[in-house]
């Protein structure tokens, strides 16, 4: 087993969107961060408030703790990992297990980009892991890791190794949800990403959550006309 640090974001000439905070542009194509799918599953309208209206709020305690824990895991990995290109890493994985973290993926055709928390590349399959607090596989978390798999699949070309997606309790080895990235999962996430792209292109409206419990905990509640 080898640990490889792949720094491939610099290969892309990304530019900031002039109006939407967080959107990047590549060859005149909008790319949104895959992590937004988690927020979309909580409340789609909060994406509008944060990235279109550019409303800034203080991060929640959970967000602060998440960043700290994430940084701790990244630093620990970087101490033992060897820097390598994507193509080299993909080639090595045909012979032995390779583990990488903070693995940048981008799919121009689907308009998505992001960083996979951890990926296992093995001779027979790939396993894409997203670290999350808690142990409940909410649909929003599943959608996020499915989108990582979709972007990764678009990057590996004719490599037909099986791709699996998993959610792991942050800071532990506990994988509490795992599934194969099969045709049904691929079609499902493509449908959602198509909706997301429609939101950012102004074709579709942002829909607020109807769950008042979510509203009561939302950091944008004082700015929201639906609260």
UniProtKB/TrEMBL annotation:
<dbReference type="Pfam" id="PF12705">
    <property type="entry name" value="PDDEXK_1"/>
</dbReference>
<dbReference type="InterPro" id="IPR038726">
    <property type="entry name" value="PDDEXK_AddAB-type"/>
</dbReference>
<protein>
    <submittedName>
        <fullName>PD-(D/E)XK nuclease superfamily protein</fullName>
    </submittedName>
</protein>
<feature type="domain" description="PD-(D/E)XK endonuclease-like">
    <location>
        <begin position="53"/>
        <end position="225"/>
    </location>
</feature>
<dbReference type="InterPro" id="IPR011604">
    <property type="entry name" value="PDDEXK-like_dom_sf"/>
</dbReference>
């Amino acid at each position: 087993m080898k640990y490889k640090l792949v720094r491939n974001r610099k290969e892309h000439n990304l530019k900031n969107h002039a109006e939407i905070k967080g959107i990047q542009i590549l060859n005149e194509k909008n790319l949104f961060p895959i992590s937004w799918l988690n927020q979309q599953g909580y409340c789609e309208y909060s994406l509008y408030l944060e990235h279109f209206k550019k409303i800034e709020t203080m991060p929640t305690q959970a967000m602060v703790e998440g960043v700290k824990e994430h940084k701790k895991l990244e630093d620990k990995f970087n101490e033992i990992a060897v820097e390598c290109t994507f193509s080299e890493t993909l080639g090595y994985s045909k012979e032995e297990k390779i583990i990488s973290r903070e693995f940048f993926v981008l799919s121009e055709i689907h308009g998505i980009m992001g960083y996979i928390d951890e990926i296992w590349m093995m001779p027979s399959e790939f396993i894409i892991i997203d670290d999350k607090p808690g142990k409940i596989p909410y649909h929003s978390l599943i959608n996020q890791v499915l989108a990582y798999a979709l972007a990764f699949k678009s990057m590996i070309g004719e490599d037909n190794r099986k791709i699996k997606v998993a959610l792991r309790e942050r800071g532990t080895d506990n994988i509490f949800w795992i599934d194969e990235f099969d045709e049904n999962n691929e079609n499902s996430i493509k449908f959602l990403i198509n909706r997301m792209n429609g939101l950012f292109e102004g074709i579709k409206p942002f829909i607020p959550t109807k769950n008042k419990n979510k509203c009561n905990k939302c950091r944008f509640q004082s700015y929201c006309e639906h609260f």
